[in-house]
Amino acid sequence: MNPNRREFILRSSLAVAAGAIGSTRLFAQQPAAGAAPPVVPQFASLRRNVGTFFARGGTMGWLVAPDAVVVVDSQFADTSKMFLDGFTPMIGGRKIDVLINSHHHPDHTGGNKTLQPPVLKIVAHENAPGLQRKQAAAQKSEANQAYADTTFKTTWRVDLGSEVVSARHYGPGHTSGDAVIFFERANIAHMGDLMSHQRHPRIDRPAGASIQNWLVSLEKVVKDHNADTVFIFGHSKAGAPVAGSSKDLLALRDYFGAMLDYVRKGIAAGRSGEEIVKGGLPAFSAHEGQPQLQVAYDELSAKA
Ligand SMILES: [Zn+2]
Asked: Is residue 11 a contact partner of residue 44, using CB atoms and an 8 Å limit?
């Protein structure tokens, strides 16, 4: 079946199952000129009980199997309510066995507290809760947080009967607390913000990001999986797919390769950060957003 058609049918049937996501939301009116588009919650199934949810912020992942319920990331407080509206009927009164945070950013953890009543355990990389606390203090949003109670340094894994879920940290990338979450039997990996599709990636240097290690990590992730693996992207350009293949990961690797090459040459030629930023990355002008060339400059010109 045409994947778009399949997704449409799935969304429609989930919308029927989830009474709260009514047809008015699925077929929202056109926004007035200049107004922010309405948030349209979208559930989509990938395969073997694993799927995605998107409203606003980072793409969420989920597993709803007869013997296990897992959620990856929680978006924001308001959109996590939309998620629960649709998800609660899907799990039929069961608990969420595990909520895994791919990293600490507020569009991935802002709904942790909303999801907390049905959640039995929150898992994240060991650096993520500290970064989340620091971020909450800066935004004075401490009262709205829920933090991981289970953390890991390199790998974490749980056997849930019909599915095995693991998480792996590849060193600093988008932050210093990123995890790739793998549904092993479905062969689906949630990349968190280590994957930004057709969109200039955000590089959170104050939170310990490293473009150079991020590039290497993308290659390692591709080697650790196979040609059939479906990768869920933390962010995609508006209208682009939220999941894809290792080719998309390698495209981001090549983006970082081009970025580092351009900035290294600029530094070698004695150009300032400002001049380098002005040059842009014209080869990637179709990407959404702006390239963080100043961050690349800071990383490459930092004293060891
Ligand atoms: Zn992020």
From this structure: yes
